[in-house]
Amino acid sequence: xxxxxxxxxxxxxxxxxxxxxxxxxxxxxxxxxxxxxxxxxxxxxxxxxxxxxxxxxxxxxxxxxxxxxxxxxxxxxxxxxxxxxxxxxxxxxxxxxxxxxxxxxxxxxxxxxxxxxxxxxxxxxxxxxxxxxxxxxxxxxxxxxxxxxxxxxxxxxxxxxxxxxxxxxxxxxxxxxxxxxxxxxx
Length: 186
Ligand SMILES: *[C@@H]1O[C@H](CO)[C@@H](O)[C@H](O)[C@H]1NC(C)=O
Ligand SMILES: *[C@@H]1O[C@H](CO)[C@@H](O)[C@H](O)[C@H]1NC(C)=O
Fold this sequence. Notes:
Shape: globular
Order of helices and strands: HEEEEEEEEE
CATH superfamily of the largest domain: Allene oxide cyclase-like
Strand order of the largest sheet: 1-3-4-5-6-7-8-9
Largest sheet: 8 strands, antiparallel, barrel
Structural class: alpha+beta
Number of strands: 9
Number of helices: 1
Bound molecules: 2-acetamido-2-deoxy-beta-D-glucopyranose
Radius of gyration: 23 Å
Distance between the termini: 54 Å
Number of domains: 2
Helix content: 10-25%
CATH architecture of the largest domain: Beta Barrel
CATH class of the largest domain: Mainly Beta
Strand content: over 45%
């Protein structure tokens, strides 16, 4: 008698816990996902903040818009709040891209973007395809610090392809899943 009663409690409790968890998860959905949308500008200077490390093997040569298939490029570029390089520096983009189309126009890019903004400090990691002369969406695969568990995408658009320094407009569309939202640290 005693045993079967205890057994009953043990069986029921996990269900109650499950019920509580389910309720709190759907509750945070009611308030919508935490999201953040902002734009920064990336400045890349050939042979200063970005270098060809391995030469490509086929297709068009190195030009303002193209690099040969297989070219390995590495960069560490400043990110500012306006297209003017003298504007406030709020981030650094570090990464690599490998020319992956035979016409020399597209590459696979991997980057870590470290951000130091007023209310968000940390990094986000992105990976995806980049087109040299058209806007490209890069999925966000995660982050650190205030960007821990972040999802979304980053759109990179070439703004100014002339001259030594190329400027890209970088639009961030970030979403925090319910389990990642924490109270802001003081
Ligand atoms: C960058 O450096 C490489 C190797 O020294 C050189 O061949 C290339 O012309 C340079 N590019 C520019 C745009 O200065
Ligand atoms: C960029 O910003 C600097 C410093 O604020 C300013 O002197 C300069 O005129 C700006 N350049 C352009 C093209 O707006």
